[in-house]
Amino acid sequence: PVGPTCETGPSRCPRGDKTRPAVKLTKKVPKKTKKKVVKISFKSSEAGSTFTCRVGKAKAKKCRSPYKAKLKKGTNVVSIVARDKAGNVSKPAKVKIRKK
After folding, report:
1. Cα gap 38→3, rounded to integer Å
2. In tens digits, what is the pLDDT along the chain, a chain of 100 residues?
3. Measured at the alpha carbon of residue 11, what is the angle toward residues 10 and 17, in degrees to the nearest 5?
């Protein structure tokens, strides 16, 4: 469940901020690996953003960069979402990693 955002509660937006933050990966992530854990570094286009990360269908958890993603055998999709101080939520940055 997502809390109030600028779209659902404009009074929650500082100074009328309705701009979504964007998540940018700051280091190249391997497409294939034998490792059980992969570090994923990222940042937001807006300072002070908080992040949630998840691997596959697991529950999203609060995280920070670098995120240590625990991989299962096969294809893993890691999703990272930023939320700015106004409550705007980014589109998920997704990374596919295949664990051998």
Report:
1. 30
2. 455 555 555 455 556 778 999 999 999 999 999 999 999 999 999 999 999 999 999 999 999 999 999 999 999 999 999 999 999 999 999 999 999 9
3. 55
Task: Give yes or no for a contact between 51 and 68, defined as CB atoms under 8 angstroms apart.
Answer: no
Report the distance separating Cα 77 and Cα 57, nearest Å.
9
Give Rg (Cα) of the chain: 15
Token pair for 89? 């939520």
From the list 98, 96, 95, the residue with the least C-alpha distance to 23 is 95
- The DSSP code for 34 is S
